[in-house]
Amino acid sequence: MFKRTIVAFCLLLLFTSIYSQNSKNKQELSVTLDVVGKGAPATCAHADTSNYYFATVNVLNTQDTAISIWVFSCSWPMDAFAINSQSIAFRFCFRGCDHNVPKEIRIPPKKSVQFYGTISSWKKDSSIARIKVGFKYFRTADALWDSEESKASQKLYTMIWSNEVELKDNLYSYEIK
What we know:
Layout: H1 2-18, E1 29-38, E2 52-61, E3 67-72, H2 76-79, E4 81-83, E5 88-91, E6 102-107, E7 112-121, E8 130-131, E9 133-138, H3 148-153, E10 157-161, E11 165-166
Antiparallel strand pairs: 1-2, 2-7, 3-6, 4-9, 5-7, 8-11, 9-10
């Protein structure tokens, strides 16, 4: 009887470690960046739009349970993303925002949320050819309210970096993926 208990316990441990959601080797989210093409939304018309690119960021839940991410309802392009360049930013030409509050986005297992926006460079040359976007994975709404320095120092979010892409105009072209 004692041997059966030990065998059952070992099998339980093995099963739990294989199928655990908290695997140390796998991130909860995967981030993919696509640069669609050069251009800017009409709401940005007052600015110099020569170095704007339309982009999509796909945040995929790699787990087999639903997870929640938190972003601000209006300022998510600036607060939820970082780019690995000092002269490029995820931009948002405001159309007005009366209520910038934390918003929970629940992502079902193996599903994703797509963010649409623009990336802009304030350098006129083309020395920045390749970029990555980092998604700030906030697990709670409270963490959104702290200052950027406090958020980073207290590890209130996990930065998940995307693939590296070339910053180029892809409009009126195609590619096989």
